Amino acid sequence: MGKDIYILGIESSCDETAAAVVRNGREVLSNVISSQIDTHQKFGGVVPEIASRKHIENIMPVIDEALNKANVTLAQIDAIAVTYGPGLVGALLVGLSAAKALAWANKIPLIGVNHLEGHVFANFLNDQTLEPPFLALVVSGGHTALMKVLSYNSFELLGQTRDDAAGEAFDKIARVMGLPYPGGPEIEKLAKAGNPEAIDFPRAMLDEKFQFSFSGMKSAVINYLHKEEQGKRDVNKADVAASFQKAIVDVLVQKTVLALKATGLKEVVLAGGVSANNTLQNELAKAAEKVGARLVHPTPILCTDNAVMIACRGYYLHQAGVKSPLELNANPGLKLE
Ligand code: KG4
Ligand code: ZN
């Protein structure tokens, strides 16, 4: 065993200011997350200007706390891994500027990380035996995609959503139903008391095998709610939540199984905020097992935004000799490829 490698991860792409220290890629020494959810809930969603300002207030205390909890100093850090996209540009710039300043002042290599790849790498922390190749279903607030992870540093995108992301659909339906932001966990809670077979919302399967579309399903739910309201009928919100959740999960599971069959891969991981959904985890685990594959998903705290996953992704880039220039800019529209 060679020298231990310490990576400081920094994440500020949306409404969580986060920093973490990870040793040798898979050992979490600290995981600090300062969430702004309470602030944004008053507005029913993330307000970019407010997010940037909160990140500025929180970024240095969060980084200090991550180093303190890990009991390491900057002198021991081998590289600083930071999210540079995708996300809100003003939010990204706060974490990125802090990372660059620390990297420059302390002569530590800087490594820019794609937030979505970070979500995929969150799985390595939960399952120490997991190794590429495997399939990944990325389901976050802004993205829905199926991807082959061929090795630690090469990925192949199989397909993504044409319109809304899965998390976005959860958030929009929750909003129409008067539930607080973020909508995913609220819908999941409400769905527990409902009947998933009560309402048959449409599932768009599309001709392109690995593409998704959730806008039709979203409109169907909104139309249903309006019609019931106009007819002055009482809506069973729990049934709506359960039926909508089932419709989304059905599409995600069916497409993922198609991809498992087409690629012959024997492991699939969940990535992004929606991977915290228990119905998705359970249904996908069952369906994967039927085709001889195994599901891995992150622990709840690593499903949503965090810096551990950024540090883990950074570790494997560091091992491959990747470094970013200090001119690295935020890229709000950064893609998975
Ligand atoms: O990955 P994430 O924390 O931020 C982005 O990178 O977008 O994902 C946030 C998304 C939100 O749309 C949120 O509603 C959804 O993940 N989400 C969930 C659950 N927890 C978070 N959706 C369904 N069920 C959940 N339990
Ligand atoms: Zn995310």
Describe the overall structure:
About 45% of the residues lie in helices and about 20% in strands. The protein folds into two domains: about 5-120 and about 305-320, ATPase, nucleotide binding domain (Nucleotidyltransferase, domain 5); about 130-300, Nucleotidyltransferase, domain 5, CATH 3.30.420. The mean pLDDT is about 95. It has helices spanning about 35-40, 50-70, 90-105, 115-125, 165-175, 185-190, 215-230, 235-265, 280-290, 300-305, 310-320, and strands at about 5-10, 15-25, 25-35, 80-85, 110-115, 135-140, 145-150, 155-160, 265-270, 295. The protein is globular, with a radius of gyration of 20 Å. The strands form two sheets. It has a five-stranded mixed sheet, with helices on both faces. Strands 8-7-6-9-10 form a five-stranded mixed sheet, with helices on both faces. The protein is α/β, with parallel strands linked by helices. It has eleven helices and ten strands. The protein binds 5'-O-[(R)-(carboxyoxy)(hydroxy)phosphoryl]adenosine and zinc ion. 5'-O-[(R)-(carboxyoxy)(hydroxy)phosphoryl]adenosine binds near residues 14, 188, 273, 276 and 305.
